[in-house]
Amino acid sequence: MKKIEAIIRHFKLEDVKNALSAQGIKGMTITEVRGFGRQKGHTEMYRGTEYAVDFVPKVKLEVVVDNDLAKSVIDTILRSAQTGQIGDGKIFVSELQDVIRIRTGETGDEAL
């Protein structure tokens, strides 16, 4: 099993969610996060004063899938989240040792 974490732009969330749902992904977790990468934030003007925004707001999407689906899920996220601009985000892929459904006690693929 793979855990796929994607940090994406807010306005791309619906596109990514719809594309993953169309692919048959049944569950995902969304978290609003703030951070910076190479872009190192940006400056904004507010009431005539310029100030630095060090941490840029993003959305973190987490999906756990069977190994067979991981590549297609990653490709779907890439395709639907990409704008071609700096700050599009990152995708992190981790190997999961186990998954347990709390309600039933099912483990592994059955718990997904």
Number of helices: 2
Fraction in beta strands: 35-45%
Order of helices and strands: EHEEEEHE
**Radius of gyration, in angstroms, nearest whole number:** 17 Å
Overall SS class: alpha+beta
Summarize the biggest pleated sheet.
4 strands, antiparallel
CATH topology: Alpha-Beta Plaits
Query: Count of DSSP E strands?
Result: 6
User: CA-to-CA gap between the ends?
Assistant: 10 Å
Low-confidence segments: none
So, CATH architecture?
2-Layer Sandwich
Q: For this structure, what is the CATH class? A: Alpha Beta
Q: What is the overall pLDDT average?
A: 90
Helix content bin: 10-25%
Tally of structural domains: 1
Shape: elongated
Placed side by side, the strands forming the largest sheet appear as 2-5-1-6
